[in-house]
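*** Backbone structure tokens ***
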Amino acid sequence: MSFKLGIRREDKNIWERRVPITPTHAKQLKSIYGIETIIQPSNIRIFSNEDYRSIGATVNEDLPSSFIFAVKEIPIKFIKPKTTYVFFSHTIKGQKQNMPMLKKMMKLGCNLIDYEKITDENGRRLVFFGRFAGLAGMIDTLWAFGKKIKSKGVENPFSEIKKTIDYKDLNEAKGYLEKIGEKIKNEGVSERIAPIVIGFAGYGNVSIGAQEILDVLPVEEISPKKIINLQNNYSNKLIYKIVFKEEDIVEPKSEKEQFDLQQYYTKPELYRSVFHNYVDKLSILMNCIYWNKQYPRLVTKKYLKDRFNNEFKLQVIGDVSVDINGAIEFTEKVTTPDNPVFVYDPINEDITDGYEREGIVVMAVDNLPCELPKESSKAFSNSLFSFIPSIVKADFTVDFDKLELPSEIKKAVILYHGELTPDYSYINKFL
């Protein structure tokens, strides 16, 4: 019996050069498991058509009608009947823009497996780009910080940092940052911007990636409690890093209650934000948290309107999570790798592209891993590889309860034979 899988060409925008399965893994799928790969041609993909041909894959516009892997959402016109699709569908929160796609897949009796829901028994994601979103997001945010501060007339070593897409690869970016770190260590930064304090909301894969970049510079990590007295006792040759956990960000509304993480996850309405205690003491805020509307926001428009002035310390927010009007209420739009930031003016409550206007700079690129396409594709393919044979060799004709897939994959099946599986029946209300 022959097994085939297809890889769709990514064409959401000119920056999307990633692949879910690299040539190296396509070669191993053939030699070890007898699975053939057919991939659509692309002129922008980080691995060329010839890279796939050279390992025995077929480059062809038409893909098999059995299994199709991709990174981003599948355009409606591309969806084929009774096909199994594996990609980031961005449907599990009922995202409005992707409901027409989901409806079409239901109408055509398709199966849908979403990478985002491939998790272990503790709910930790197993197939993800998160670290690379953090890596690229931190570089772009430091670039924005340097430009913003320089536009205010303050010379600073951060102004020498380039955008992620202007480096050849991650190693070059880190090497560049090491030199800037040496400069900070030896010469310090202007007292006009010291102490430089960078806060991270969240501590998952995205935050870990962002911290990995920051840690190339001379960094001292402090607890949230120590931020209060930092202004009186600091070094201008260090960057201060703070990682905020849930218990730092919110408190129970009832004074009789203690913070309980599981309760906060399941009943967030019992909690209120206390993050305003920290916002005006940060130079940069990196938003790396999962958020939906029942959770309190990190920074609101009202908070900034009430407090913003020319001396306000917070200069840049790296909104890596990019929830529109979400945890950062004034993230009004997504940005692109070539134009990654806009300024939010808290007084007039409007936005302007770039970093020069008075206000808070927001970095809101929504596909950050594509700024490091080779490294992120290799890591992603590596995490996905072990699951591919069990997906491609499974019998998708049987009833869902008899479908034999690893538990990590089965819990990520959103549609089966065109119907929402039990865990995802709640999406019906968004359709």
The radius of gyration is 23 Å.
